Amino acid sequence: MTYDSVFRPGLFAGQIIIVTGGGSGLGRCTAHELKSLGARLALIGRTQEKLDQVRRELGDDDTFTVAADLRDEAQVKAAIDGVLAWGGRIDGLVNNAGGQFPAPLRDISLNGWNAVVANNMTATFLVSKEVYLRWMEHNGGTIVNVGADFELGMPGMGHNGAARAGQTNFTYTASVEWAHSGVRINSVIPGFIASSGLDRYPERAHDVLRNVKHRIPLKRHGTESEIAGAIVYLLSDAAAYVTGIALRVDGGLHNTGKSSFYEMPDHDRSKPFNGFPLYKTPKVLE
C-alpha cells in the first residue's frame, strides 16, 4: 500500500530528514509520506521497538532508527552522531516528539511541570541546536517544529501552554539568528487531530476529545495526513521564502476563541484528506 501524497514523486530524493517521535502518531504518518517522496529517513524516539516497527512498515532496511531521551543533551548528541555516521548529512529536521497530560495548574507538581516543559520545549531546542551546529550552520537546511496553540492560554494544561509558547518563540528567534546559514525554521500548530495520541489521555478527557468538533468551524477532527502535508510543504522548496511562521492546521478552531455572538451551524461540507493507508481511527473516537 502506497502513501497517497498530493506532492510530486521524488520531491525529497537524495535528502536525509530526521523525524523525532517517529514511532507513532503524527511522526509515523509524516515518516510514511516523506519516504513515499524519496527521502532517506532517520527516526528518533524513546522506544526502539516502535521505531523498528515503522521501519518494517516502510519496507526499507536503510531507514536509520535510534532510541533516545531527547531531554538529555548527551543522548541528543549521541543520536545526531549516529545519524551523521549513517547518512553523512542532514537536510531536514521534524521536531515532533513531545507529550503532555491534562491537569489544572494547582494540581501540577514541579516534576510534572518540568517533564512537560522538557518534552515539548527543551527537546526541540537541544535537537535543533545540535543539528545546526553539526551540519546546518555550514550547509543550510530546514527545520519544522510541531507545537500546539497557546495564544489564548491553555486552561487545563498550563504546563503544555507554557512549553509550546516557548517552543514557538524559539522558532521565531532561530528563524532570524540562523537565516544567514541558509536555514529556514517554522512551526506547525495542530488542532484536534484524530491521531493515536488521543488514546493516551485519561478517560475523564474523552468526552472533551469527542465533542470538541462542535466548536470547530469545519466540524470535524483533523487527520494525521493533513498535519504531515503541512510539514512536507514547509520542508519543501515551495516554502523557500517562508521562515519564522506558526502555521495553524486546526479547522479554524483558533478563530472561534474570541467569539461570543456567533453560533456555528452544523454541517458536513468539510471533507478530510487521508493519504495514509495504515491509518486507524483512535479508539476514543470510535
Care to describe what's here?
With 286 residues, the protein is of the alpha/beta class. It has one domain: Rossmann fold (3-Layer(aba) Sandwich). Helix content is 37%, strand content 13%. It is built from 7 helices and 7 strands, in the order E-H-E-H-E-H-E-H-E-H-E-H-H-E. It has helices spanning 25-36, 48-58, 73-87, 110-139, 158-177, 206-211, 224-235; strands at residues 16-20, 40-45, 64-67, 92-95, 141-146, 183-190, 246-249. The protein has a 7-stranded parallel sheet, with helices on both faces. The model has no long low-confidence stretch (mean pLDDT 96).
CATH topology: the name is: Rossmann fold
Q: What CATH first level would be assigned?
A: Alpha Beta
Q: Give, in spatial order, the strands making up the sheet with the most strands.
A: 3-2-1-4-5-6-7
Tell me the series of helices and strands, N- to C-terminal. EHEHEHEHEHEHHE
Kindly estimate the percentage of residues that lie in beta strands according to DSSP: 5-15%
Average pLDDT: 96
Helix fraction, binned, reads 25-40%
Radius of gyration: 18 Å
Estimated structural class: alpha/beta
Helix count from the secondary structure assignment: 7
What would you give as the CATH superfamily? NAD(P)-binding Rossmann-like Domain
Number of structural domains: 1
CATH architecture type:
3-Layer(aba) Sandwich
The protein's oligomeric status is single chain
